[in-house]
Amino acid sequence: MTRLLLPALLLLGCATPPPGFEERRLDTIPDGLHVRSWRFTRDGRMAAYVRFDGPDQDCVVVNRVAGKTLSLI
Amino acid sequence: MNLSEDGGRVAFLAGHNTIYRDGERYLEYGARQVSFPLTLSGNGSVLAWRVTMGEGYQVIVDGVPGPGYGSTGLPVASFDGKVVAYRASQGEDSWFIVVNGKKVSETFEGVTDPAVSRDGRVLAYGVEGDKPALFVGTKKVEIPDPARSVFLSRDGRDWGYVTRSQVVTSRGSSEPFDEIGDPEFSPDGKRVAFRGRQANQWFVVVDGRKTVAPGIVWGPIWTPDGTQLGYGALLDRDVWWKVVPAN
Description:
The complex is a heterodimer of chains A (73) and B (247). Chain A is built from no helices and 6 strands. Chain A is 0% helix and 47% strand. Chain A has one domain. Chain B has no helices and 28 strands. Chain B has strands spanning 2-3, 10-14, 18-21, 24-28, 39-40, 47-53, 56-61, 64-69, 71-72, 76-77, 84-89, 95-99, 102-103, 115-116, 123-127, 133-136, 139-142, 149-152, 159-162, 167-169, 172-173, 179-185, 192-198, 201-206, 209-212, 216-222, 228-235, 238-245. The two termini of chain B are 32 Å apart.
């Protein structure tokens, strides 16, 4: 699974969902990474996106929910 | 990359031929190429995708292959995934709509990707030709300008479409935009919100009222009570969920 333009997938969110439909910061993208293909849950508590470390980087897929790593491929 | 509405299910395409679902490698094709993005039903239970088949394409639903066609659009699904629809062609200027693997429409010079109501009961699509039109359920609506995409209210009673520069519903048309994304009816079906770009500025637009939406990358979507809109934004390097009033 190397050199596939492949991306890291991050699923992130708040560990304890606040009540209501509130504005909130979900994550900070580290410098030097590129992101695209956004999805958010309809309550705004979680977001997922595709992360590119670079076109020739080996593939790392990370799937995180509420700060917990679920899988690393 | 796809996410169910509650965020509990996720699917994505790795490279051009490997599908991951809920963190596991689900399926890998050899030389056949899968189209991006995949389609995940709103409840996350059904995954559909388009894959090359010789010179043409085939839509697969949860591993079950549909018929092969010269070309197809990408599939759309009802919330529970029990209805999967897409456009397909068997030759030039010969497009039609397929639902759950069966052709359900006449053949047209061109058709848009279909829209399916949340409950799967209503199907809508736009057709090109001398007299552009929308088909919404069993109803045909003639329209002045060809539709590029079609959308429905949750119950399928209200329809709208996007032209080259405007969002149009039965209640009227928006002002022109350079780019339009994600039009969505309010829960009561009476209002429409979308994101629109004019020059370098994105807006959340409701009933002709524009709110500046810096960094917007997803949405807007309505709150269940129809009083607010939420959207996803990337501001500097921070991922935000932003909320704006709808009234």
